[in-house]
Design a protein that fits this description.
This protein has about 240 residues and is an alpha+beta fold. It is built from 9 helices and 7 strands.
Length: about 240
């Protein structure tokens, strides 16, 4: 299982220089590796002004960068992720995001949205591809908040990656790990998650049916070739011809 990079965040309440409580978003800073990141690799941002940026009708990259910099609580912190606004609008305390190879194997395939539905059912919200940045954050703020329900465990961004979230880090991590590996082993009898029974056939069944359809359309010659090869005795099993005379 490969994560392929990504970012993460946690929301906390801290005290400012006046002793007043402040909602803070600690989001991965640009340039840090997820495998080795330390506390210094997270950029602390005032949560409310960052989340409000998603309410703007439009926001260019330069203005977005200035807005995030203005919300920073530490001028020495690294530049916050371009997806900081998206992390801010997701309501859970812990948010995990990776470009998981198993998920991208589904979403980067023709008909990827249907394959995601086949594997995950309605336990994830599926977002069409949008360039990371303000436009993506705004789209997620509208669609995710409108479509989520009590059993929503994640969000799949087509041609991009996977988001999961939870109120504690351990649950968020386990949800993420389960949904990164779910496309790899989805027999029909397996549960969709540890919370809900599966109501879909699973990825392997879908791909198997697709392979059967492809074989029916264009695999006759290939099957005949394989049959001829299997019908011919191999050198190790062929019986020598008996000489006459």
């Amino acid at each position: 299982m490969l994560a392929g990079g990504g970012n993460s965040s946690v929301k906390t309440v801290e005290r400012d220089v006046f002793g007043d409580p402040v909602d803070v978003l600690h989001v991965k800073g640009s340039g840090w590796d997820m495998a080795t990141i330390e506390r210094a690799g997270f950029a602390p941002l005032r949560l409310d002004p960052v989340a409000r940026l998603a309410e703007l009708p439009e926001l260019g990259d330069a203005r977005m960068a200035r807005g995030l910099a203005a919300a920073s609580l530490d001028p020495a912190a690294p530049a916050p992720s371009v997806e900081s606004i998206l992390h801010a609008v997701l309501p859970s305390r812990f948010v995990l995001h990776t470009h998981a190879d198993a998920v991208l194997a589904l979403t980067d395939t023709p008909g990827g949205a249907a394959l995601v539905e086949e594997v995950y059912g309605d336990e994830v919200v599926v977002i069409p591809y949008v360039m990371p940045g303000f436009a993506l954050a705004r789209r997620c703020a509208e669609q995710f908040l409108a479509e989520r329900h009590e059993h929503t465990a994640g969000m799949v961004l087509l041609n991009h990656g996977l988001f999961t979230f939870a109120g504690d880090a351990r649950t968020g991590r386990s949800r993420h790990a389960a949904r990164k590996t779910e496309p790899d082993h989805c027999p029909g009898g397996r549960t969709r998650s540890r919370d809900r029974p599966r109501r879909v056939r699973g990825w392997h069944a879908a791909r198997g049916a697709e392979a059967q359809r492809a074989g029916a359309r264009g695999g006759v010659a290939r099957r005949n070739c394989c049959f001829a090869a299997s019908a011919s005795p191999s050198p190790s099993t062929a019986r020598p011809r008996r000489r006459s005379g």
